[in-house]
Amino acid sequence: MSQTLAAPLRWGVLGSARIVETGLAPAIARDPRSVLMAVASSTSGKAQKFAERVGANRGYENYRQLLDDDEVDIVYVPLPNSLHREWAIAALEAGKHVLVEKPLALTGADARAMFDAAATADKILLEGFMWRYHPRVERIREIIRDEIGPVKLLRLAYTYDLGSGYGDDTAAAARDIRYSAELGGGALADIGSYTMSGLRTYAGARPVHVAGRLLAEQNGVDMRFSGEILFEGGAIGQFYAAMDMPGGAVLDIQGERGRLRMANAFRTAAEWGDPEIEVTPFAAPARLEIVPFADQFALEVDAIVSVLLDGRTPVIKPEDSIENADTLDAVRRSWSEHIVDMPRGAERE
Prior knowledge:
This protein has two domains: about 10-130, NAD(P)-binding Rossmann-like Domain (Rossmann fold, 3-Layer(aba) Sandwich), CATH 3.40.50; about 135-295 and about 315-349, Dihydrodipicolinate Reductase, domain 2, CATH 3.30.360. Helices cover about 35% and strands about 30% of the residues. It has helices spanning about 20-30, 45-55, 65, 85-95, 110-120, 135-150, 170-175, 190-205, 295-310, 320-335; strands at about 10-15, 35-40, 60, 75, 95-100, 125-130, 150-160, 205-220, 220-230, 235-240, 245-255, 260-265, 275-280, 285-290, 340. The two termini are about 25 Å apart. The model has no long low-confidence stretch (mean pLDDT about 95).
């Protein structure tokens, strides 16, 4: 980076997404080396009220005003998925570092364009997968390495019932961006991005082939799908995602020497208690490991601050985000092409 930053790291937010109130803004407020400097809203008259609600120093009535603010170091982009590329690149060109809420981009091509813009601007671009910062991720990797691996089969199911949250209020449901094809909605971009990232993280290998099936659509967006990924080395990752049925996220890993299972695979909440990992080595007694609860957004903010202020290596590297975008591309294509070969080497450029 050409510019040396000093604490506090000054954050700006584009949009008034609910995740700002429930996740990132409280985490910034608790971080001793961060301050929420500004928020911007595209809805007239909303910015200042939202700023007061989330504890920001000021509110802007349009996104460009925030990007022109010299007192903002990093911009968080939790906008609808179809707007990620446009506004991430705009923020980078304005001289800001950028954190984009998952999924970073709707296509691999968009992801590459965004990282090209970051390189040109000499700024850091990061994808907002808060689950990757929890200690249980590294603990599971250790268990795979030391006790149950090599991995042969990974299963990830992630489901929730989006419509049930609205009851009979169909008008409110219709405004949910996850039901909008134009805004990049659908289960694949939402929870599917988690399942692809999870399978890739724990497989520890490059995806080679993807095969999938679209099971249900609504309003032009995918509601439910399933499939599998073949990884280098022979491991198989099976996935199922739906936003029209309850269930949550469950991870199941089968290795040569044992298996592992974990519920609530991507989210934590204080009311859920400490995350639990069920470990069953074939040569030892089964056990239940407890990983202390930690706020994943707080861990994410702390890690990002360390990247920008202390020069630490990002947890989620550019090649990781690009591969996840490529995998989402492959899943989408597999609904009509059945089996899709993943790009490799020069094919990724």
